[in-house]
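User: I'm putting together notes for a lab meeting next week and I want to include a structural view of one of the chains we've been expressing. I don't have a solved structure, so I'd like a prediction I can at least talk through. The sequence is below, exactly as it appears in our construct file.
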Amino acid sequence: MLLKLDNPKIFSEIISIISELVLEVRIKVNREGMSIQAIDPANVAMISFKLPSSAFSELEIENEEVLGVSLDSLKAVLRRVKAGSVLIITKQENELRLQIQDKVKREFNLALIDIETEEKELPNLDFSSKIEMPSLDFAEAIEDCGVVADSCSFVSEPDKFVMKAKGSLNSFKSEFSSDELNIEAENNSSKYSLEYLQKMVKATKITDKVKVNFATDYPLRLEFITPFIELAFILAPRVESED
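Assistant: Thanks for the context. Below is the predicted structure for the 243-residue chain, given as structure tokens.
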């Protein structure tokens, strides 16, 4: 197995984001590329990440490999990647070898680990509200909600999308119309944990658009997609009476 990334900085950023939700993952590598599917220890959030073969300048593999890795260890190595670095990943017996090539050739070897938790497939969800909006606007609204509360409500109408939060004393609301966003929605309302959302919106740095999919008291799916990356999160709702 040999993988070569000529621009590994974005890969490093995505691993850092995923590491905030899960501690270890199985990385699958085959001729179609690399993928990660994982669920956080509290069974509240799921992550799906795909890096297609076209993202690699070289991809050599005979059979599918499943690599169990500690994300803390992998993230620590990838932090050593600089602008202009090239990353080469190979497998040597029970180790993952990462070569960083820039002015100096550096090599790290990470022990592969056995991961006992069962891998779960992403659920097939049917969303009745689908919004595409600028990543920056979405991230700003999530941070604004975090000023006043620990959860955020998403409310949709056919021509409107609202993100709001209410704490014991203070509240916040951000309203978007179909003139500003691509909205395909019904009347829906659902509440989600800001602790998780604030970690997920760090993915807004990889693309200028985010797809927000939800329904009433239903899981949320956030999608961050570029020509070379597919990153999605699923977050369980907080089902409770409105404050």
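A couple of points you could mention at the meeting. Residues 2-111 form a domain with the Proliferating Cell Nuclear Antigen fold (CATH 3.70.10.10). Residues 41 and 131 are 28 Å apart (CA to CA).

User: Perfect, that's what I needed.
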